[in-house]
Amino acid sequence: MSKRRFGLIGHPLGHSLSPLLHSRIMQAVGIDGTYEPIDIAPQALPARLPALLRTLDGLNVTLPHKQAVIPFLTDVDEAARRLGAVNTVCAGKGYNTDALGFALCRVPMQNRRVLVLGAGGVARVLVPGALAAGAKSVDIYARDVQKAHLLARQVGDSRVTALSDAPQPGYEVVLNGTPVGMYPDNGSLPVAQAVIDGARAVYDTIYNPTATRMVLRAKSAGIRAQGGLRMLYEQALAAQKLWNPQVDFAAARPALDNILPGLAREVLRQSPVKLLLTGYMGSGKTRIAQRLSHTMGEDLPMADLDERIVLRAGCAIPRIFERHGEQYFRRLERDELMRLLQAPGPMVIATGGGTLVQPGAARAVHEAGGLIVLLEAKLDTVLSRICPGAGDRPMINGGEQAARTLFEQRAPLYREAADLIVDANGGVRSVVNQILRAFEWEAQG
Ligand code: S3P
Q: For residue 214, what are the CA distances in angstroms to 175, 176, 340?
């Protein structure tokens, strides 16, 4: 068979993951083909689409064309017609594989109260998806209340309601279809924390970062939570299956299963998030940062904030405290922190035990697109690793009692700042694995 040609139309296309994703799928199943991003402005669609429909073997469609392509197609399948949106074209017929992609994520919604955040393109997939999965009720909340009401009316199911006011806790499932939390807006939550805390399952269609603040906070609270990468993968795979019905996808399962972890790393390369490790003295921030960076290879270099401060000051931390006092140290610390946050590329940063409990520090991290991981260890654990009163850590020069008091003061502040909370009482490997799992990264090689 001659080389197959596929393409994605949208505007703007920016850093779409689709070309890479499709080429990985084609490679895994042995299809000789290309997949090109084709940027088409809305007004150019009528002039350009017919030729693409004639010459390409298959087409994906993304914003803003999902609805606009419909009049150019010879047929539209039932599901896409109901959604009023086409994301895949095969032999002139329109389909919607987003809906299937979401269904394959298997968010447990049977008989549950579901909250959908947003009323745009993705929410149009989530609402019917929740109904199809047996939701007891689906409430839609969007900043644009009129849009939420319009979507509820269009779906026309008695279980669906549009909210006029911000949602209150009480939902068993929360689905995010807004862009809130997407890189570089990593520090934002699309809904109040209390609504997330009360849920039993949380799903975010955002895949960049692979785990948003909402997903991380939910995971930290022991709630089942998933980011949008799987949905992206499943809709692409479903499109390839439509375009290549003769190919045995089941036989390529092992190779296909390797694609998602690789993709998670690609997301990190494209959107270089900074991961800040925080936690009390002795929680293992430096060692965990080293091991995490080692495990991720060049995708995640490491920096140690205390080390930077020492280099900058030209003397050890106890000397800085002795000569200039804590306030001076905090200024240096804040300064070096901001430098690291502004440096290009992804990074895991071991902060000092006091860095992110300073007023405004966590907010500055979030505003700079960083995510905060709290290594949470018990007082006994940290006391077994540090030596209060030994003089190497000026904040606890006062000995064990001083270490206890500071620990108790800071414990709630760490929690407030954190996006992801991991249990740091165990060994290095177990802590690193918790972080890797949360972001769907896998060890290299
Ligand atoms: C401090 C912790 C230290 C160091 C400085 C102040 C603190 O870092 O930044 O002594 O306020 O907790 P480690 O947590 O790495 O020991």
A: 10, 9, 24
